[in-house]
Specification:
- The chain is of the alpha+beta class.
- It is built from seven helices and four strands, in the order H-H-E-H-H-E-H-E-E-H-H.
- It has one domain.
- Helices cover 44% and strands 28% of the residues.
- Strands 1-2-3-4 form a four-stranded mixed sheet.
- Helix 3 crosses helix 4 and helix 4 crosses helix 7.
């Protein structure tokens, strides 16, 4: 009975506490100018010294090499593994930003988004059981004139957080009921940036 009730409440609780984006920078571009923009492309890269902690990604890479999940850390820091993780992250982040913005930025002035990921931390199930933790993503986002390359609007260190189930019960319910943690924090990031840019 209690588990069933928690199962129904968990998505609402996590949604209440999830932060779609911590907006600490003011959007100074007038709304009518934003309405004139047309999103041409999204480019996702990684800042020098970017930190990535994504255990599921490391295990997925290890599986492609026939390495057991418990031994994933043995290859996690190789250049090939890091390239694998970065491609998976950039593909998902680009797709989320395009989905959020392409239907909104439909004007005639072409613009590009240039994203530089600085920090991605996906808390593992063991961490959340023992000490707790959430998932977070931090990146710089530049809106650039696609014709001239001139910077239009910068959002340095935009941060998004996705809350996660804590303890044994919360972690089990999280894994059973909620989408992939990486997708959750990336979608929060895209929604947060979209709301900030569009002044919603």
């Amino acid at each position: 009975m209690m588990i069933s009730m928690l199962a129904r409440l968990l998505p609402a609780i996590l949604l209440t506490f999830a932060l779609a984006g911590c907006a600490t920078v003011t959007n100074t571009v007038p709304a009518d100018r934003i309405a004139s923009f047309k999103l041409e492309s999204v480019t996702v890269g990684f800042a020098d010294g970017a930190r990535i902690w994504w255990g599921d990604g490391e295990r997925a890479f290890a599986a492609t090499k026939g390495i057991a999940a418990q031994d994933a850390e043995s290859v996690a820091n190789t250049p090939e593994a890091q390239a694998y993780l970065r491609k998976a992250i950039s593909d998902r982040l680009r797709a989320a930003l395009e989905k959020r913005l392409k239907g909104e930025l439909t004007g005639s002035h072409p613009v590009r988004l240039v994203v530089r990921v600085k920090d991605l931390q996906i808390s593992s199930a063991i961490q959340r059981i023992i000490v707790g933790g959430a998932h977070h993503l931090k990146a710089d986002v530049d809106l650039v004139d696609a014709r001239t390359g001139q910077l239009i609007l910068a959002f340095p260190e935009q941060t998004a957080i996705a809350m996660a189930g804590q303890g044994i019960g919360g972690t089990m319910l999280d894994q059973a009921l909620l989408p992939d943690p990486l997708d959750r924090v990336i979608n929060n990031f895209a929604d947060g940036y979209g709301n900030w840019l569009l002044q919603k």
